[in-house]
Recover the amino acids of this structure.
């Protein structure tokens, strides 16, 4: 599918900076980048994709087209924080918790949130959701979490490799769901 028309010069101006971004700054840049995307002009064929908006020394940004529902499983970003802006549809962010019940907070069109670089979370996206994720610094690797015979394992993945759902860990944290 052809990439959407992108105003690269304006995206570069949004990304511009001389140091790593705070989580709040990632969220603000995700919101600013969303102003440049016209959801009505996106090609909705295929199962969806991640379109790189920018990657420089201090941050990277992705336009994510979720034409199919997607559960990322529990993962970390190896120290990179993230700011997320929802353009269309709904997305849920669930920090990994131990000892307190999990809470998957829902975000809809126009909502922005961030997650710290030392956190572990899971995101769910409904079919048709469109989001922008800004990471700082650029992701070096993804740590994916699941249980192996009851023991928590961290499996290292490539930064641009979609992580699978964490079936056993999800079941352990949401018994009976
Ligand atoms: Fe994430």
């Amino acid at each position: 599918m052809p990439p959407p028309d992108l105003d690269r010069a304006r995206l570069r101006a949004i990304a511009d900076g001389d140091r790593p971004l705070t989580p709040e700054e990632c969220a603000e840049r995700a919101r600013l980048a969303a102003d440049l995307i016209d959801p009505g002009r996106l090609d909705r064929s295929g199962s969806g994709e991640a379109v790189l908006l920018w990657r420089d020394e201090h941050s990277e940004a992705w336009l994510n087209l979720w034409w199919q529902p997607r559960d990322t499983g529990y993962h970390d970003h190896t120290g990179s924080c993230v700011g997320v802006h929802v353009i269309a549809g709904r997305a849920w962010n669930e920090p990994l918790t131990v000892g307190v019940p999990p809470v998957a907070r829902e975000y809809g069109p126009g909502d922005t949130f961030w997650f710290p670089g030392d956190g572990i979370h899971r995101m769910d996206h409904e079919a048709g959701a469109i989001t922008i994720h800004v990471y700082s610094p650029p992701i070096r690797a993804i740590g994916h979490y699941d249980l192996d015979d009851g023991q928590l394992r961290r499996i290292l993945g490539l930064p641009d490799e979609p992580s699978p759902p964490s079936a056993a860990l999800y079941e352990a944290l949401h018994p009976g769901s």
Remarks:
- DSSP finds three helices and twelve strands in the chain.
